[in-house]
Amino acid sequence: MSHTSHPYAMRLGILRPWRSRWFSGRDFKKLLKEDVQLREFLEKKLRGMLVDSIDIERSPSVLNVIIKTARPGLLIGRGGEGIEKLKKEVEMFLKKPSKTSTGKTGIKLTVEEIKSPEQHAKVMVESMAQDLEKRLPFRRVLKQNMSKIMASRDVKGAKIAFSGRLDGAEMARYEWLKEGRMPLSTLRADVDFAKGRAHLPYGDLGIKVWIYKNEVFNKKENAFTKKSKI
């Protein structure tokens, strides 16, 4: 029986960085659980804002949450009201003060804009979930978003899959559409993957998106490929 590997986890340390970047010897279990709960809280809170990823970096005094989104203006708000409100909600959720005893900021929120939303699987999943929740026909959503993804110059292939009671049918089924190449077993292939759900009156619909950009041969030095120069 075959096993399915997650395209992101399969490329960790090769093409992809860890989403949580910190080290702790004693409190590893506690901090890892905190990261998972914080990420779930933010994903639920920021649903509809086309968030691609939530990265967490920790230092002894600062917790930095990096939110990558296609709608930074909607998240930041007028005069930074939105980001300040979100920061207070994160502080209440984690029960941490905004400033430490040394005067340094305890929690920091960084918002990064995504230049090409069509090249990011998570953004496309959220966009399709919104369309399906507006009760648009699933085939139209499938074809429109596939053409939108493939119109991007850097995309070499894509696959979209829907599952569940499509269009309210009594029996659940699985429908998918694929264009271009999709080399899932090639580690140097830059494949972005994401999955999500659309909440409808007759039940949830599952959405999965794979986007293949290109093969990476000469990747720039990062935290995984750097070698100590003597």
UniProtKB/TrEMBL annotation:
Keyword tags: Ribonucleoprotein, Ribosomal protein, RNA-binding, rRNA-binding
InterPro entries per the UniProt record, alphabetical: KH_dom, KH_dom-like_a/b, KH_dom_type_2, KH_sf_prok-type, Ribosomal_S3_C_sf, Ribosomal_uS3, Ribosomal_uS3_bac-typ, Ribosomal_uS3_C
Gene Ontology biological process terms, A to Z: translation
GO molecular function: mRNA binding; rRNA binding; structural constituent of ribosome
Domain KH type-2, residue spans: 38-115
GO CC terms in record: cytosolic small ribosomal subunit
Pfam families to which the protein is assigned, alphabetical: KH_2, Ribosomal_S3_C
SMART domains assigned: KH
Similarity section: Belongs to the universal ribosomal protein uS3 family.
Assembly information from the UniProt record: Part of the 30S ribosomal subunit. Forms a tight complex with proteins S10 and S14.
Job description of the protein: Binds the lower part of the 30S subunit head. Binds mRNA in the 70S ribosome, positioning it for translation.
NCBIfam families listed in its UniProt record: rpsC_bact (TIGR01009)
Protein known as: Small ribosomal subunit protein uS3
The organism of origin for this protein: Candidatus Giovannonibacteria bacterium RIFCSPHIGHO2_01_FULL_45_23
Lineage, opening ranks: Bacteria, Candidatus Giovannoniibacteriota
